[in-house]
Amino acid sequence: MTVNSGYDPAHLKMPGSCVALGMKQTLADRNHNRELADIFHRMAGCYRYMGAKERFREIAYENASRTLHGLKDDVSIHATDVTSLDQLSGIGESIAEKIMEYLESGKIETYEKLKVKVPEGLLELMDITGFGPATVKLLFKKSGITNREELLAAIESGRLKKLKGFGEKKINNLLSGLKLYKESHTRMLLSFALEIGNELLVVVKNTEGVIKAELAGSLRRRKETIGDIDILACAQRKDWKKIMNTVLKSPRVGRVLASGETKLSFLLKQGHAQVDIRLVHEDEYGAALLYFTGSREHNVKLRTWAKSNNWKLNEYGVFDAKTDRKLAVQTEEEIYDLFGMQYIPPELREEKGEIERAREHKLPVLVEGKDMKGDLHMHSKWSDGSEKIETMARYILKQFPHYQYIVITDHSPSQRVAGGLQPDDFKKQFREIDLINEKLGRDFIKKGVELDILADGSLDLPDDVLSRFEWVTASIHSGFSKDNTERFIKACEHPAVHCIGHPSGRLIGKREAYPVEWNKLFKKLRETGTAVEINAQPERLDLKDDLVREAIRQGVTLTISTDAHMLSQYDFMEMGVSIARRGWCTKHHILNTQSWEAVTAFKNRKTVIRRQPKKTVHP
Phi and psi (nearest 5°) for 243? Predict the structure, then answer.
């Protein structure tokens, strides 16, 4: 199955195959944000292909694309005139005019002309890791390759090897990029699947005759990528056909794959993801939800255990194995209780020891979104974020009233492309934060930085500057093909580094994680009292769940942060919490479930193993 989510991996620090969370339109509505963002992304690609002389236009259209993907409301609400659109971050007068043109006519003339100059398949190639404009131009001019299929044929036939500059290593890198791209377009990122799944769940629940309904499958277990969207509902038998017919009439439904009284499978009109909806009797609901949630391995282990105790478990219920009498258990909780087990949260159902722990009643109480006290990693307009700090703070105070603090962590000098700040810039930012906190009447905004770890493990701000920050997250933004263990080790040993950010460097469906000796790093994190981040950006989800579990086993403190660059991305905290839960985290494992006083105490306990000598600031 091909999943086209309407969002491409080339879009900034956002999901590789997801739509921005937080947009309130239903799928039935015209989503101008998504349509225009995709058009502007393709226009940016055209200008990128056309060379350095069009660099300004490329950046402008990519910025506009990011802005549109992050808008909470449909852009048409803002489009009373060009001037009102001009107020949106990243939307200048020229682009505002094109938005108005599209809303009025359904097309943009400039884009129609650009499509003639640059074949669409070449734009798709440029969105694949390893395919810059120079490579794509060469493939097109020398071999006439215009799309992925033609490129694969050229590789398989050996024709590509004959081109200058396409040695074995280069071809292998291209194949790796093609593989990642294919994976990202056959599975949905968790955030996209959740957005679509929850919208469809509302439709099902609101259909007359439905008693209750829930997401199922890997989406309910919150896996980082999702194949299909599964929804289970229960209703009286007499209402089944009417319910299925009602859902079929929904404008969300694209091509129907299968339609019966108990199961409906279809592709979404937007995104072309597959959706499976199943109807069951009310007394079957608990067993069916357990069965269709999975995982397969969890179900097999549970059924095997039930059989050894003279029970039979399947999607219809729990039965006495000798008499075939159905037992009166109608919920998942009742089934686990019958088996003498703790209720096992869906995120843990992967056959990784959860059944044994549940039998001993030793499962952890998993962290929840309501436990989060603050966000330790976000970017403002001072570097590569889209909003002013005051706008960010007021929005978060309204939308996340349980938060006690946020930390602004704009980039340090080495990240020029992300608008990295110089020491004097941080001084100005600190003064602004103080003024905003005074206006808010509380010490809500904390002063932080996302510090670059350089190739030799040194840091790109001197000690006297670092000592002024209230929180320092150190991250790697280069050298993705190298083993970066030692870079992290050196950063951990620095007394001013409080946390390691997005530690594996992966971008799901776009870039593989770089090599890291995790046991060695976890040991150093624990020894130095340095935390490690679960980055909640949907294309990162970094650390991944199995590494999260290993980190807590080794006594490492974790944080969950959104790395937000626009308002809609603060909702990503939900993604980070999901990964933490899959990693068996309680709130006690996550630093920012605690007060700022506790965060400060954690910083003060940091063990200094090796002090890095002072450095001069890089120009």
Answer: -65, -45
Q: Report the chain's mean pLDDT, rounded to a whole number.
A: 86
Is the peptide bond between 36 and the residue preceding it cis, with omega within 30 degrees of 0?
no
Q: Are 58 and 48 in contact (CB under 8 A)?
A: yes
590 three-class SS: strand
In whole angstroms, how large is the CA radius of gyration of the chain?
26
- Residue ranges in 530-615 assigned as alpha helix (H): 545-553, 573-582, 596-604
Fold of 297-361: Beta Polymerase; domain 3 (3.30.210)
Spatial contact of 294 and 222, defined as CB atoms under 8 Å apart = no
What is the C-alpha separation between 410 and 565, in angstroms, rounded? 10
Residue that has been written with the tokens 């970017």 in this structure: 379
**Exposure class string for 357-391: b at 16+ Cβ within 10 A, else e:** bbeeeebbebbeeebbbbbbbbbbbbbbbbbebbb
**Among candidate residues 150, 95, 90, 142, the one with its CA nearest the CA of residue 120:** 150
Give bridge partners of residue 451 from the DSSP assignment: 474
Neighbour count for residue 248 (Cβ, 10 Å): 13
Q: Rounded CA gap, 7 and 596, in Å?
A: 36
Residues linked to residue 258 through DSSP beta bridges, in sequence order: 265
Domain boundaries, the chain: 1-6+187-280, 32-184, 297-361, 369-604
Report CA-CA distances (Å) from 61 to 66, 135, 276. Answer: 9, 22, 37
Distance CA 582, CA 576 (A): 10
Residue 120 has pLDDT above 70, yes or no: yes
Look up residue 564 and give its DSSP letter. B
Peptide bond into 65 cis (omega under 30): no
Which of 18-30 are b and which e, b meaning 16 or more Cβ less than 10 Å from the residue's Cβ? bbbbbbeeebeee
Cβ–Cβ under 8 Å, residues 474 and 465: no
Taking the domain 1-6+187-280, which CATH number applies?
3.30.460.10
How does DSSP assign 478-544, residue by residue? S-TTS--HHHHHHHHHSTT--EE-STT--BTTTBPPPP--HHHHHHHHHHHT-EEEEE--TTT-BS-
Q: Which residue has the tokens 């790796």?
A: 176
- List all residues 6 or more positions away from 207 whose beta carbon is below 8 Å from its beta carbon: 243, 246, 247
Q: List Cβ neighbours of 490 (8 Å cut-off, separation of 6 or more).
A: 453, 456, 457, 458, 610, 612
pLDDT digits (tens, 9 = 90+) for 195-231: 889 989 999 999 999 999 999 999 999 999 998 999 9
Q: Which superfamily, per CATH, for 369-604?
A: Metal-dependent hydrolases (3.20.20.140)
**Tens digits of per-residue pLDDT, 2-14?**
343 333 333 333 3
What's the longest Cα–Cα distance across the chain?
80
DSSP 327: P
Superfamily, domain 32-184: DNA polymerase beta, N-terminal domain-like (1.10.150.110)
